[in-house]
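Hi support team,

I've been running sequence recovery on a batch of backbones for a student project. Most finish fine, but this one hangs at about 90% for roughly twenty minutes before it completes. I'm not sure whether the input is malformed or the queue is just slow. I've pasted the structure tokens below so you can try to reproduce it. Let me know if you need the job ID as well.

Thanks,
M.K.
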């Protein structure tokens, strides 16, 4: 039964993300922001930028639904706080263009929220290899 619920929540997240992406890509939407090509671009014509908001919304809704189903909200606070910071600075950067230092500080703060929540990466495991990370890198 838990796998079925998780699958349904994932499917709902996909549907929400697809619907919101379509909505934000509509030129009539207030959140329709175009990225115009420049010398660093990988695209050759204007491309919508606000699809990340749709993905962010779907992830937050999915996390909240899963937390509600499991009746465990303890992990949600720190992850949501970090995600909200990164999403906000990314949207503002898309909209207005922010200096690199501001974005870096916000990303470090978001990483700090994850560490505060107990999310550590003490090692990296790949088939046939396990690398234990130094304390500074893995924060574990």
């Amino acid at each position: 039964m838990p796998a079925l619920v998780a699958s349904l929540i994932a499917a709902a997240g996909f549907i929400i993300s697809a619907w919101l992406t379509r909505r934000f890509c509509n030129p009539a939407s207030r959140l329709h922001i175009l990225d115009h090509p420049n010398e660093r671009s990988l695209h050759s014509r204007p491309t919508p930028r606000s699809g990340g908001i749709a993905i962010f919304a779907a992830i937050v809704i999915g996390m909240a639904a899963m937390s509600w189903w499991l009746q465990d909200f303890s992990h949600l606070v720190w992850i949501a706080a970090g995600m909200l910071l990164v999403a906000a600075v990314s949207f503002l950067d898309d909209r207005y263009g922010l200096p690199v230092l501001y974005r870096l500080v916000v990303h470090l703060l978001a990483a700090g929220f994850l560490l505060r929540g107990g999310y550590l990466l003490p090692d990296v495991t790949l088939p046939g290899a396990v690398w234990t990370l130094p304390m500074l890198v893995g924060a574990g």
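--
Follow-up from support: It reproduced on our side and the slowdown came from queue contention, not your input. The first strand starts at residue 34 and ends at 35. No action needed from you.
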